[in-house]
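Predict the 3D structure for this chain.
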Amino acid sequence: MKQVLFFVLIALFSINSFGDHTMDQDIESSVINLFVHTDQREWDQLKKVFADKVVLDYSSFNRQPAAELTPEQIVSAWSGFLPKFQSTHHQLGNLLVKRSANKAQVFCYGTASHYFPNESGGNVWIVVGTYAVELIQLRGSWKVSSMKFNFKYQDGNTDLPKLIN
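Done. Predicted structure below.
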């Protein structure tokens, strides 16, 4: 009887752990999709990653205050700027997920490479920092409700954004 109880408890623990792991993967996938859809310029898919209102904070990089925006406003801004580069590549790493009920916080490292061939030969601009992303569970999936970029440094041709305008 003790062996049966032991195996039942192990099975219940395993099922619960698997469920938590799957939920964490869903949360991570939402954050990863945000950047993949951006780099692939899949603007309609990108809108679906966001909650109805999103607090976007890049103040450590651009000195502009955080703003509450709709997915349409975010996509409009990004789709008006990023496609001017020949390509962009966002690389994420070290994702740490904290979850409580229908909310989650994700911390991750991020590197954004922007490529635009030009006469100067300085074709790449790289921005490095961390992200603090908050998500809510909405209509059965995890949606980004807040994203704060914490700037560390940039390298390469920091004048590249001026060249594409």
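The chain is about 40% helix and 40% strand.
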